[in-house]
Amino acid sequence: ILAGRDLEQMGTWLGVNRRGRITALTNFRDGRAKTEGKKSRGELTRQILESSKPIPSQLKTLSSATEEYSGFNLLASDDTGIYYLNHLDQTPTRLEKGVYGLSNAVLDSPWPKTNRLKEKLQHTLDNNPDRIDAASLTELLLDREEAEDHLLPDTGISHEWEKHLSACFI
């Protein structure tokens, strides 16, 4: 497994293994939720990377235990596809071909930074498909523009933090 490691809980937020599995996890921003006594979300990605079970069946098993973790979005990929699971609907979904956006709410939530990145990525794919590389993708992510106040989501945190976190690059 190649991944960062949370030295407190031994989980990871992004990783890949030798069999080509890739996992990524975002937290789900909810300033009103209780987080005490919850397991580390980074454990979810580690479990997928360590397992040889097919990802759909593994996600189905994990979906029955989502309440044990603080809010999350989980992406898992192998040669059969890319799959998505979140703690709210608990239904693993195979993603079809397309451009998606994931931040700290459910997949494709209309957050300003998510919409902006999806539009820029789609524009790049439509106009410069041969120029997609790590540098061009990183450039898209380095956007520090903050959203206008009326576009900010209400996630239960202060307006000041919501504004700061509305930029793609934090």
Short structural description:
This protein is of the alpha+beta class and 170 residues long. The protein is 29% helix and 16% strand.
What does this structure look like?
The chain has 170 residues and is an alpha+beta fold. Helix content is 29%, strand content 16%. It has five helices and six strands; from the N terminus they run βββααβββααα. Strands 1-2-3-4-5-6 form a six-stranded antiparallel beta sheet, covered by helices on one side. The radius of gyration is 17 Å and the shape is globular.
What's the helix and strand layout?
Layout: E1 2-3, E2 14-16, E3 22-27, H1 42-50, H2 55-63, E4 72-78, E5 81-86, E6 93-95, H3 112-127, H4 134-141, H5 159-165
Antiparallel strand pairs: 1-2, 2-3, 3-4, 4-5, 5-6
Keywords:
single chain, 170 residues, alpha+beta, six-stranded antiparallel sheet, 6 strands, 29% helix, globular
Based on Cα principal axes, name the global outline. Answer: globular
Helical content (DSSP H or I, runs of 4+): 25-40%
What share of residues are in beta strands?
Answer: 15-25%
Structural class determined from secondary elements: alpha+beta
Give the total of beta strands.
6
> What is Rg?
17 Å
Average of the residue pLDDT scores:
92
Tally the helices. Answer: 5
Q: What oligomeric assembly is this protein in?
A: single chain
Q: Name the strands of the widest sheet in spatial order.
A: 1-2-3-4-5-6
Order of helices and strands: EEEHHEEEHHH
What composes the largest sheet?
6 strands, antiparallel
| Head-to-tail CA distance between termini | 27 Å
Uncertain residue ranges? none
